[in-house]
Amino acid sequence: MSSATAEFQVHASGTAPKQVDYIPHLKLNDGNEIPMLGYGLGTARFKRGNSDKLDENIINAALTAIKNGYYHLDGAEGYGNEAELGEAIARSGVDRSKLFVTTKSSCRPGESIETAFSRSLAKLGLDYVDLYLIHSPFWAKSPAELQERWAEMEALKDSGRARSIGVSNYLPEHLEATLQTARYPPAVNQIEYHPYLQHEDGDLLGYLRDKGIAIVAYSPLTAITRAPGGPVDAVYDRLARKYGVTPGEIGLRWCLDQGIVTLTTSAKEERLKDWKQRLPLFKLTPKEVEEIADRGKEGHYRAFWTKHFKEGDRR
Fold first, then answer.
1. Where is each NADP-dependent oxidoreductase domain found (predicted)?
2. Domain range for 13
3. Is-contact 23 39, C-beta < 8 A?
4. Hey, CA dihedral for 16, 265, 33, 87, is it positive or negative?
5. CATH number, position 192
6. Catalytically active residues, by annotation
7. Is 29 exposed, middle or buried (0-12, 13-18, 19+ CB in 10 A)?
8. pLDDT tens track for 82-117
9. pLDDT tens for residues 280-295?
């Protein structure tokens, strides 16, 4: 059992936590720790075009999250908003040591990981990031290319400028190729995860747990925000009434109770405050977690990277 899961169980036992808005951490396979609830800039804060002008809306959204205690901040060069994230960090006044900052490389053709990483650091205005990810494996034409890129990632970890390194959107075959030559296994695999995409084909979650690779979920509320009216709605609603919370909080809790690091992109301050205050105060039972999973498997919805998968593919 992870320390994070144990912490949530303490809060669910009926004894209120000393700090209501506490966000627990999960220990990674390299010994570093990651906050289990994070704020992702994601495609919700995507910046189009190559303008150097800062987008104040993106800055303010990130700043709102930081000021409300969301110190796990997840970005990517592919979102085009690393400079805005860096500006929000600078304006927040929060000590760098308290923040957990993630960004990602798009692995542009003909460009080294080092070049991409140095550019990201400059845009963020930071000396290091806590987690650096390869954004997807779909650019690679061979296992050897995945292995070469991972070796470049390992050099960044050796340098100390990326405290932890990992991947995103990898399937077991991509991970297997990477692990064949890896000196360090990926610390995390960040994936789209919600009841309608549980990756049961190929048992991705089982593979990750077997290899000690932490799971980070993006788009965890897809059943509510993108695919409403599906088979989990009634379960979410019933459990929300039982625990005196919202269906969204049930959706987030469902991920957290599986030991999965969970990202949100909400920019609504009241919602961010409510989540931090209420999520530590209840815990779904194993039967409830299983019920949501079972009902979720009655539907299927993939929001991202759809061109790489056939209709109905649940990998």
1. 40-293
2. 3-299
3. no
4. negative
5. 3.20.20.100
6. 79
7. middle
8. 999 999 999 999 999 999 999 999 999 999 999 999
9. 999 999 999 999 999 9
